[in-house]
Write a structure and sequence with these properties.
It is a single chain. The protein is an alpha/beta fold. The chain has a single domain, classed as Alpha/beta knot. The chain has 3 helices and 6 strands; from the N terminus they run E-H-E-H-E-E-E-E-H. It has a 6-stranded parallel sheet with strand order 2-1-5-3-6-4, covered by helices on one side. Strand 1, helix 1 and strand 2 form a beta-alpha-beta unit. It is globular and about 35 Å long.
Length: about 140
């Protein structure tokens, strides 16, 4: 399960829906997320909006990890066993302080010169890793 916190770009919302569909994950959208049925989000989702389970923000699994650009534990070191919700923050602000405990933050170590990944790309990496660990 991925939960999107105030992701404002409809292209990112659509791309994350499409990626969730590819990896068999559900999605939760916070109240201030871009409209997943807007034309841009629909194009980016390639119809996945009609296949992906959408879960109310209040109903996501309680065990949560937050994907952050810096300061979290490396993705390879984090327990990703289900049930789990991976929180992805807004493009500009990330996740608000206090949404999850510091010990529940993870990051994707980048060997190149980039400082961080686009939220849709980062979500894809985490969904791939979840699937890889499940062995499917």
């Amino acid at each position: 399960m991925i939960a999107l916190w105030e992701v404002s770009d409809p292209g990112n919302v659509g791309t994350l829906l499409r990626t969730a569909d590819a990896f068999g994950a559900g999605v939760s959208l916070s109240p201030k997320c871009a409209d997943p049925t807007s034309p841009r989000a629909l194009r980016a989702s390639a119809g996945a909006i009609f296949r992906v389970p959408l879960v109310d923000w209040a109903d996501v699994p309680d065990r949560r990890v937050a994907l952050v650009a810096h300061g979290g534990a490396p993705l390879a070191d984090v327990d990703l066993s289900p049930p789990l919700t991976v929180l992805l923050g807004s493009e500009r602000e990330g996740l608000p302080a206090g949404l999850v405990a510091d010990r529940s933050k993870l990051t994707i170590p980048l060997p190149g010169k980039a400082e961080s990944l686009n939220v849709a790309a980062a979500g894809a990496v985490v969904l791939y890793e979840l699937t890889r660990r499940r062995g499917s």
